[in-house]
Write a structure and sequence with these properties.
Strand order of the largest sheet: 7-8-6-4-9-10
Number of strands: 10
Largest sheet: 6 strands, mixed
Distance between the termini: 56 Å
Radius of gyration: 28 Å
Oligomer: single chain
Shape: elongated
Strand content: 5-15%
Length: 621
């Protein structure tokens, strides 16, 4: 048991803290190298280090490790899972709509952050080559593109075998960070005074408005906190906490203090490549290699996180259906989403070619993550009554007030980055939000229209009993969004083909707001008589629907669902725009484009193509 927990902690170290682990490459440098008007002196260096120390304690250790990790949706973490958890308590429609908008905004911002993380991580590591030879500067961007291209092109092969070595590599990386930090601290032990929070206070007093802007650079040290929370389901609370408190936290802090000691002990040291100046010249090559590998691991964590996020969004009806490929027969979470892979790959390449320098990318980094962290804090505050009694609730509320004020300060300080490139991340997030909200609203309108035009199944069965249509052998399964109404595809089939199968099933699939649904609650069946059945199949948002497999297991109500004699009827929708609609015309055109390019529902639900019949339907939007 103990060995297993240690192994999970090492794995969590590799995946969850990959992004945080690469931040020493640019965080301190950005504080003094950016356009913040802050010079290198004792008060400023110790003040920045004190800020980093107490931000680690307040935001990651208190907010995420103690509070947010306690808040999970049956083991799932992240802003989307937190949104679904809050929605369970929200009974009023306006409040539900507001919470849903917050969740969609947070999810969209995470996509924007996912685009910039691989670019800045790998680029900052490869820039270490300039320490060996300044003439290698021209090779930094091409080499970064080669590494990034190889990483994305290998995704379709799966990440199971690669993931085995992630933990040990990241453990070595964090130990190197700690060793480098100790090497710097020995040169100037007085840097340890920065543990005192008064240095942070003095920093603000001396630098006034410039200190507030520097918060945007200091924020870079905790950019991986939200991804850490999102990976809760993969590793569990205890391994993540162990990895943070016993390895990541002390190792990162030692490295930052080592960089600060280097600034204090040498008047001529520059901040352009401060991290690599902690490394003896003859060890630069090995450190550059391990740093690059660490950034690849950080990027891999972001990419696989994107795959899971898109899959969940599709299941919950927030994103059009896309092709999802399972890369492992043993682990359900190992998937490959071609659309997400190549879309993210394109964005990362454009960012590398557009900025060409990790310092410039750092100027654009942080605004999406800071906004997501603020939204996460607001959502969490809605759940205080669920996890704490009245006596403790006031204390937690007080902590969250301080946390939300701090998150707000980070977001405001990051606003200055919009002109220097932050607008790119905001634009990506805005496009994703527009797609998600338009798709959700469009599907809701279509569902309401179909329900209003639907024919009650009880009346339909009575009509069948009277009219006695021609019955043909076999089973027909008609997919419908509402299992209590007769789908239009079934009505069209009777109207034009004038036949009804011996067994006719009206089948609906519902994605519950939980990760997994137990097998005992998977299926609901109603026998309406005359060989007509209504079936509801429920899945969790982390599960993968396979309708033939579930139907083949049904033995109740005299149903005989032989896959070889079952035909699935799908309605192929053609959208017709009405003159009046609650959606604007341009959003309806966007929805029509998304609907036209969505993947085939038969493939999404695991239905063999040779068992599918599509019937054309016109639907008003």
């Amino acid at each position: 048991m103990q060995k297993g927990l240690i192994g999970l902690s090492v794995a969590a170290l590799g995946i969850v803290f990959g992004d945080i682990g690469t931040s020493p490459l640019y965080a301190i440098r950005e504080c003094f190298h950016g356009s913040y008007g802050v010079s290198v002196n004792e008060i400023n260096v110790l003040g920045v280090l004190s800020l980093i120390t107490w931000i680690f304690i307040l935001i990651i250790s208190v907010k995420y490790m103690f509070l947010l990790l306690k808040t999970d949706l049956e083991g799932e973490g992240g802003v989307l899972a937190l949104t679904l958890l809050v929605l369970r308590k929200a009974d009023i429609s306006p409040r539900r709509a507001s919470i849903l908008l917050i969740g969609l905004a947070g999810t969209s911002l995470m996509v924007g952050d996912a685009a910039i993380t691989p670019a800045i991580s790998v680029l900052s590591a490869v820039e270490g080559l300039t320490r060996i030879n300044p003439n290698l500067n021209k090779a930094v961007v091409p080499l970064t593109i080669v590494i990034i291209s190889a990483l994305f092109l290998l995704q379709k092969r799966g990440t199971g075998q690669i993931g085995i070595i992630f933990g040990p590599i990241m453990l070595v990386w964090f130990l190197i960070l700690a060793g480098m930090g100790v090497y710097g601290i020995v040169k100037c032990p007085s840097v340890l005074r920065a543990i005192n929070p008064l240095w942070a206070f003095r920093f603000f007093v001396v630098n006034s408005k410039h200190a507030f802007i520097v918060l945007g650079a200091v924020f870079l040290v905790i950019t991986g906190a939200e991804a850490m929370y999102a990976d809760l389901a993969h590793f569990g609370k205890m391994p993540i906490r162990m990895a943070w408190f016993f390895i990541a936290f002390p190792c990162l802090l030692l490295n930052y203090f080592g960089q600060g000691a280097l600034l204090l002990s040498s008047e001529n040291v520059g901040v352009e490549n401060l991290f690599f100046k902690l490394v003896p010249v003859h060890l630069t090559w090995p450190v550059v290699i391990i740093a690059t590998v660490a950034t690849i691991i950080a990027s891999q964590a972001v990419i696989t996180g994107m795959f899971s996020l898109i899959k969940q969004a599709v299941s919950l009806g927030f994103w059009p259906r896309v092709s999802i490929i399972h890369t492992s027969s043993r682990h359900i979470g190992q998937i490959y989403v071609p659309f997400a892979n190549y879309a993210l790959f394109t964005m990362v390449l454009l960012l590398i070619l557009g900025f060409r320098d990790s310092g410039k990318l750092a100027g654009a980094y942080g605004i999406a993550v800071s906004a997501t962290m603020l939204l996460t804090g607001l959502l969490f505050s809605c759940l205080l009554g669920r996890y704490w009694n009245k006596r403790r609730r006031f204390f937690v509320l007080l902590i969250m007030f301080v946390v939300i004020v701090t998150d707000t300060a980070f977001l405001l300080s990051n606003f200055v980055k919009i002109k220097s490139g932050g607008w790119v991340v905001v634009l990506i997030a805005a496009i994703v939000f527009l797609i998600m909200s338009s798709w959700k609203k469009g599907r809701d309108i279509l569902r309401d229209n179909v329900s209003q035009q639907g024919f009650d199944i009880v009346l339909f069965v009575k009509d069948v009993a009277v009219s006695k249509p021609l019955r043909v052998p076999g089973t027909a399964v008609f997919l419908s969004s509402n299992w209590r109404n007769v789908p239009r595809a079934l009505l069209h089939n009777i109207k034009h083909n004038r036949v009804l199968h011996e067994q006719t099933v009206i089948l609906s699939v519902k994605t519950e707001n939980v990760p997994f649904v137990s097998e005992t609650e998977r299926v609901e069946i109603i026998d309406h008589g005359e060989g007509i059945y209504a079936i509801l199949i429920k899945y969790g948002f982390r599960e993968y629907p396979n309708l033939p497999k579930v139907l083949s297991k049904i033995k109740a109500h005299n149903l005989k669902l032989d896959p070889a004699r079952t035909t699935f009827f799908l309605g192929k929708e053609t959208l017709v725009f009405r003159k009046k609609s609650s959606m604007s015309m341009w959003r309806r055109r966007l929805f029509a484009f998304l609907s036209h390019n969505a993947s085939n529902p038969a493939l999404f639900f695991g239905i063999p193509p040779n068992r599918v019949v599509e019937l054309g339907l016109q639907v008003e939007l």
